[in-house]
Amino acid sequence: MGTNLPLAYLMLSAILFVIGGVGLLIRRNPLVMIMCVELMLNAVNLTFVTFGKMLNDISGQVIVFFVMVVAAAEVVIGLGLIVAVARRKPGASADDLRTLRG
Amino acid sequence: METAVFLVCALIVLAGGLGVVGSRNPVHSALSLIATLFGIAVLFLNLGAQLLAVVQVIVYTGAIVVLILFVMMLLGGDNEEEFDIEPIAGQRMLAGLVGLLFLGAMLAIIVVGKESIVTGSRSVTQAISTSTSNISQIGRELFTTYVFALEITAGLLTIAVVGAVVLARRPKDLQPLPDEPESLTDMGDVPLTLMHEETGH
Amino acid sequence: MVELVWLIPALPLAGFLLLLFFGNRIGEPRAGWIGTSAVALSFVVAVISFIGLWGQPDHTYELKLFEWIPAGNFSVDIGFLLDPLSMAMVLFVTGIASMIHLYSIGYMHGDSRFPRFFTYLNLFVFSMLILVLGDNLVLTFLGWEGVGVCSYFLISFWFEKDENAKAGKKAFITNRVGDWGFMVAIFMTFFAFGTVKYSEFLPMSPGLAQSTATFIAFMLFIGAIGKSAQIPLFIWLPDAMAGPTPVSALIHAATMVTAGVYLMVRVNPVLAASASWLPWLIAIIGCATALIAATIALAQQDIKKVLAYSTVSQLGYMFLAIGAGGYSAAIFHMITHAFFKALLFLGAGSVIHGTHEEQDMRRMGALRKLMPVTAITFIIGWLAISGVPPFSGFWSKDDILAYALHKSPILYAFGLLTALLTAFYMSRLVFRVFYGDARWGESAEGELANLDAHDTSAHSDDGADSHADVHAGFMPHESKWPMLVPLIVLAFFAVVAGVLNLPFTENLEFLNRWLEPVVGANQVHLGLGGVQLTIELVASTLVALFGIFLAYSVYLKNKVDPRRIELPFFANGWYIDKAITDFMGGAGRKGFELIAMFDNVVIDGTVNRIGRATRGGAARLRTIESGYVRWYALMIGIGAVLMLAFVLTQVSF
């Protein structure tokens, strides 16, 4: 692999991460927000694998394995929460949960 | 060859990402997400992480996105978000600013550092071997070096399942979420016990 | 036997507590007897301790009861220092106090708050004993404040009358001004020596820097000015005559006002180590006080006021002695003064009692035959204070004058002049009260009308403004035995107390030799003898007799119009009191209001403004917690960017 290509992977990850981040901050629909989180997680996964390749170490991929597991669990919980909230208020967005303000 | 694959997949990934963020319809966002995830899977293959590519397709695309689509259908997901209004003042601008700064910093690091940004020692755990298959190598690592993390992750999944079941249970009496109260300390005629019933039982 | 020293203050304390809780139930007259016996027993223990003290080395005994203030390096104990000075004071304090307690049983008969009076008296004796017996400055200060408080209680004992309450307040507040000096001195003493215990820091005094010693001694002198009524803080003593006469006798003649003298004598090593201008200052203030007070006394019409200013004047003599280096002379005069001044006050009380609460001299006269015992004892006291040999006052006053002459002939001259005035105004008092025409009753009206028309001196305290016709047909009478016995006892001592320190030979100077361990190193040694001594003694005698003769010719023979001598300037106290009041009410008040305003605006204002700023800041900070989850996520993002930026600055590529 050429010396530039891993760097290109890293740059791609960075861009994807930022897209996901900005999307998380801008979108109000909770499901879309979860999807943005998935984007960020995937960017991170890509970064890990790239580093694993650059360092010639298998643990980069193993970590990604774990990240996926945790991401799955997190999505499950998140969707459970969304269902619970949406039952009370159909069409609720992230902005509707703001009772805990100062 | 690798470079060409990379370029194509990169385009797919970025297009999907922008689609997730920019689609009005959440179903369109979900489909864009699938595109992104596929692109990432191919990139994994490009990097020689075969197991991960397959797991990505099966778990991420096949389970997580499907789950999201299920919930979207359950809750009437075609309500489109209004892009024009933004209740929080300055949110969009600041978000864009944060994003740009962050991206700028990261790109600067990568461009300036080049190879030297990877400072760790090589092959600390185990070198990626080309002789044994990727699956068996990862399997071996999982069950030797990372066995603790594996078991705890198993426990985590169990907890997640139980939690999801508890969260999504249908309570006895359904009352809509209260509108924002006038006074912060006084919730009006909604007693505090209601909050317990949401998550309790 | 000397270990019983702790009983000396404990007995009056027990009396105080007993009377405090059960006084009203015990009632008159048993409450009076309890109070008296407490102090009398204390006197007995004092005598026993005195006998025991002879066997102690240097006639000094220290007893520590317990630790009172343990504060790191600073430690103050409750302990007693029984040395020649404190022994002498304890003896005459308890002795005279028990006499006055006995007297009060008769004087306060019929008063509605009889038990309360003895409660306060016992508390006073306790405080005074703590003052004298304390082995460190803080205990002395405790007693100092205690006697001040009791003075306040007792002066305003008849507080139903406004003037009495005001007089009590005036005494306490004026004392307080002096107390500030005392406190500063205690701080400085601790700072300079690391201890406030007498037996520890007094021996170290010769090694003290002169400025420090001067500062400490000067601050203590300020305290003494307040407590012992020197110029300019003597203003409270004449007003204090509003209290019952036994109070005036005990507190404002024999004991409390002598506390300042005691203090200065106690710290004589510090005084010796200070700059030479300080003893000069003390001597000059003492001499000036003596003279000024004597001039005021000769223009007063109230018996008790004359005696009050006389006390101020005699206290001035004591400070003159201290300034001139004659510490034992000051103590000698203190002792004799306690006897004859208490005698005079109690006698005055007897006269007042006998003339049905009349205090104005112009309405008395020719009482000698009607109150013989009072008259004779009073005359003895008069001769003592005037300095007529062989009564005690002559010896002690002459002792002081000898030291004054040694210091400066000018001070000696003023001292002699004051002695002349003392003899004059005391004789005036005796002649007006006990001799001459009877101005009480019917014959008084005409003379009264004459006098009132020309009289310009103001009275504020006599309760008998009621016209003479109310008293027409009444006869002044002698007092009962509880009041007469103390008079007789005190008169006896006023006669013989001179033997304590006869100046003829070294052997006869008992008091000098007794006080040697305490003041010996710093006392000026006069080494008088022979011709010089005889001349001084004769001069003092002549001056006293001349003063009596002058008063005789003015008041009994009417050779000179009294009004040419009793000037309004004197009668109004050289307008010092008025000047102080005007200043405090006028310019002084502005200063105090300025300080109060500083406290309100700057200090309180700063605290309040900090509070308000915190609230305002908090209100503005609260907007960050908007409740929006996306906003919080944005904050996290901003934080991440900042951290990244920081890390970038640390990293080199």
Can you walk me through this structure?
- The complex is a heterotrimer of chains A (102), B (201) and C (653).
- Chain A has three helices and no strands.
- Chain A has helices spanning 4-26, 30-55, 59-88.
- Chain A is 77% helix and 0% strand.
- The N and C termini of chain A lie far apart (54 Å).
- Chain A has 102 residues and is mostly helical.
- Chain B is mostly helical.
- Chain B has helices spanning 2-22, 26-47, 50-74, 91-113, 134-144, 147-167, 193-199.
- With 653 residues, chain C is mainly α.
- Helices cover 70% and strands 3% of the residues of chain C.
- Chain C has 28 helices and two strands.
- Chain C has helices at 7-26, 30-53, 84-107, 114-133, 137-155, 162-193, 198-201, 210-227, 236-239, 245-254, 259-266, 268-272, 277-297, 303-323, 327-354, 372-386, 392-407, 409-434, 444-454, 468-471, 481-496, 510-514, 516-519, 530-556, 568-571, 576-585, 587-622, 629-650; strands spanning 61-71, 74-82.
- A two-stranded antiparallel ribbon of chain C has the order 1-2.
- In chain C, a hairpin with a 2-residue loop joins strand 1 (61-71) and strand 2.
- Chain C is globular and about 110 Å long.
- The N and C termini of chain C lie far apart (92 Å).
- Mean pLDDT of chain C is 84; it is low at 442-447 and 449-473.
- The interface between A and B is large, with 81 and 98 residues.
List key phrases describing it.
heterotrimer, A: 102 residues, mainly alpha, Helix Hairpins, elongated, B: 201 residues, Four Helix Bundle (Hemerythrin (Met), subunit A), 7 helices
Describe, in short, the structure shown.
Chain B is 65% helix and 0% strand. Chain B is mainly alpha-helical and 201 residues long. The longest helix of chain B is centred in the N-terminal third of the chain and has 25 residues.
